[in-house]
Design goal:
Blueprint lengths: L1 H28 L7 H20 L8 H22 L5 H33 L6 H18 L9 H25 L1
Length: 183
């Protein structure tokens, strides 16, 4: 029982920081402005980790490599801590691979969340201060679909199609995670 509680608590804390670091990475990659409540929260929760790492690790081709590496390292350490709590001893390569697959999986979850929030905001309040941020996140993924799928009765179906595609990709990624864990 206590091991289960420990694994849960480690997972909650580590996943929170990994999601925040990945959100920061994706915000910078997609050029989402940080001048909104979500962006300011992401900066506030990750700056204490990212600022020192940027002094040591340079960016790569315009990507925020320090933030991505911190997310990967945090996920790997979290997986290792969870395994240690339950008494398992996975190899370092296994932990590193699962952490990498988890970053992809979490990135897909962030995109799913952004698509759902953007769709809801477009129906409820398209002029909210958060709408431009979520539009900037989802636009690169929806734009190719909008070329092939016209609106039906003034309803844009591309978010629904993107969600179906993302869930198919998530199924594949989850199978990759299971395969990496068994190696």
């Amino acid at each position: 029982m206590f091991a289960q509680i420990g694994v849960f608590l480690v997972d909650v804390v580590v996943s929170f920081f990994v999601f925040m670091l990945l959100a920061r990475f994706h915000f910078q990659w997609l050029r989402v402005p940080f001048r909104n409540p979500v962006g300011e929260f992401v900066l506030a929760t990750t700056n204490w980790l990212v600022a020192p790492a940027r002094r040591v690790i340079p960016g790569l081709a315009g990507l925020d490599l320090p933030t991505l590496l911190l997310a990967w390292l945090a996920q790997a350490l979290g997986l290792w801590a969870q395994a240690a709590i339950v008494g398992a001893e996975p190899g370092p390569l296994t932990v590193a691979t699962i952490a990498l697959v988890d970053l992809l999986r979490y990135s897909l979850y962030i995109l799913v969340f952004a698509v759902i929030v953007q769709a809801v905001l477009s129906w409820v309040n398209p002029y909210t201060p958060l709408a431009p941020a979520f539009d900037t996140i989802t636009r690169p993924f929806l734009r190719p679909l909008r070329r092939f799928v016209p609106p039906v009765g003034n309803v844009d179906l591309t978010p629904l199609i993107l969600l179906v595609i993302l869930y198919i990709v998530l199924i594949v990624v989850n199978h990759l995670r299971v395969a990496a864990a068994t190696v």
